[in-house]
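note to self: the first set is below, dont mix up w the second
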Amino acid sequence: MYQIKTYNAIAQEGLDQFTADYQINQTDTPDAYLIRSVNLQKADFPEQLKVIARCGAGFNNIPLTRVTKQGIAAFNTPGSNSNAVKELVISMLIASSRNLFQAAAYSAQNGGADISMRTEKEKTQFNGTELLGKTLAVIGVGHVGSLVANAANALGMRVVGYDPYLSADAAWRISTKIQRANTLEEAIANADYVSLHVPKNEETTGMINATVLAKMKPNAVLLNYARGEIVNLDDTLAALDQHHLGQFMTDFGDDRLLNRDDVVITPHIGGSTGQAEANGAIQGAQTIMEYLETGNITNSVNLPNLQVPFESRYRLTLIHENIPNMVGQIATLLANANINIETMSNAARGDVAYTIIDVDHLQEVQEAQLEADLNKIPAVYRTRLLTK
């Protein structure tokens, strides 16, 4: 029986994925966490914890280095909320171009018998512009960015995409009408709107700064529905104050942004739809079951992807450091125990590696001792013995 502990409100559609072999929220020492936004950076993890799955694309609430060294696999659910974020970004593009927030605020504060006459006279202050023919720069054309690019193209916008890490799969998702820029500066140079869709990492933190903003078209609109730290807020506010940047729209609040007519803040609602929450929960639950039952890895954020058909009676999985002779040490230990290896697969991701070994026969005493013996090898973080 596997034990699952959930944090935040996990959609019932996801919880319904778990079979009778799983119990939910029956213990504080579970095999798996299924989470959304709970901050685990300072959390203590039980020894039994083997996997954390986050229902959503972001994973900055998980201390990856620490969980890796504890032999815990961490996963996200990429693509589960992509459509929800895309629709919000397109909504904000339209709202910005037509001054919808300002117009709605005006209407809410004005009334009386002469409202129709006054509105006819004063509504020109809300005259906007059409998106047709305008240029949108999409920075990052992964799951969300590719959808935004295609939707904007369908609205008649000229779309320029920039992504130095564009994968073959992502390339297939983008319309051939999307122009690909070779540099960030090339992408934003003539853009009326710039929409950010990159993950937060060392390279992207603060990527939108004074230097980049200065190269944007005057009065352009910047949209950040990716991660707050991607934009240097002090530099952005300076560009707004200098009337170089026209407007900033973001899903990430900060006190420095409050009470400004040229800033629109939404309360981190990019993926907040019923469908997106259900999609993330379903994908997260399925990921947990796949990992616990087979050891196969897809969409891990701290371990390499590795999928091997589970056809033998026994399977060993090892999370370990990516250093020379690790596989040799593992194989030697098994050979000395007179254990025949049917298949062995190994993959690495930076400083960490993952090994799957299938064997057809183990003696009862070996079943009891094997995990402990393998865990004694220096640089092995965790060994698991799975039976089919």
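second set (the one i keep forgetting abt)
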Amino acid sequence: MALHPKVIDLSLERMLRILDALGNPQDRIPPVIHIAGTNGKGSTQAMIRAGLESAGLRVHAYTSPHLAQFHERIRLAGELITEADLAATLEECEAANGDQAITFFEITTAAAFLAFSRVPADYTLLEVGLGGRLDATNVIDAPRLTVITPVSIDHTQYLGETLAEIAGEKAGILKRRTPCIVAPQAPVAREVIEARAERLFAPLSIGRQDWDSRREGDSLIYQDDHGLMDLPLPVLPGPHQIVNAGTAIAALRELGFGRIEARAAVVEAEWPARMQRLTRGPLVDIAQGAELWLDGGHNPAGGEALAQTLAGMARKPTHLICGMLNTKDVAGYMRPLAAQAQSLTAIDIPGEPNTLPATETARIATAAGLPARTAPDAATALRQIVAESPHARLLVCGSLYLAGHILREHG
């Protein structure tokens, strides 16, 4: 991280150069399932992986950002990359790159490809870092399958101001004659994706047209041209996970799998910091009789999904502890949460230079209708809230970087 700037500079030139110097390892990895979208990429990837692994398959997976440790980004045949393998692979990439300019995400993505090329597996799950068209992962000429999760407004400084522009960047992962699973989309995003797919002769399987997933009582109902499946609800909580589960199941169906793998996808997936109940560690000790939850959603769609999740839970006083980046639409994130929470305590994200100051987070929350105050850190915020509302629901939220800090520093 000290050697390379943690900046976003969407381009494929540096990536193609270092991969060529490494012998183009991206051409020697197992069949790729490439996943783009604004929200739900990680959850959908986790469900696809659970389904594939239930069939006894070995699966590589690449995701970002990491939460507690960098190793989470690179999973080799089901296991996180070891410290020794990670260090050796990064050294190799440093030598191949020499003293030429490259970003942190680019060189670590090159390291992932190099590691994937050396370990046998059946599939590679590749999550886009940002956008799609010019993302460092978009160097696979012929993936087995592409997936586009729900597209919404985010990262406008890089991807464009409108939903159509952002959808165009996400649709950049489509490849000629390669099938694509498309989650339900807003009409304008869907039109952009369909237009690009038509130019590339890429078959689309679109949510609410070619397949559908919905909740009925305590069941997930999935339906497509092959029939109907009555499955358990996803173990990952929240109404939005119904769509993510449907997307993952549609991908598994495209790959030739059936009910057993679909069931495993929804009941065996693990994905931390997505409405995760914390059950141990010093913060749980501070919370005492209160519930403590963690969520990394950080844009308006994430705020809406979180609000819907809270609305579906048992009624209980809910208090937010929130830290956000200064690059996000904070007001858009806060508005849907105002109806579901009694208060917000704003904190800075520790160690993050782009944190929004807690005072500004609190000001925006108050304007959005959430009574707000500040605290120097999460532990202090917890103590303040528990002293006033000892049996409440406490939710740390607003950023994956804050979620990672909580998981890493508080057990």
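remember for set 2: The chain has a mean pLDDT of 94.
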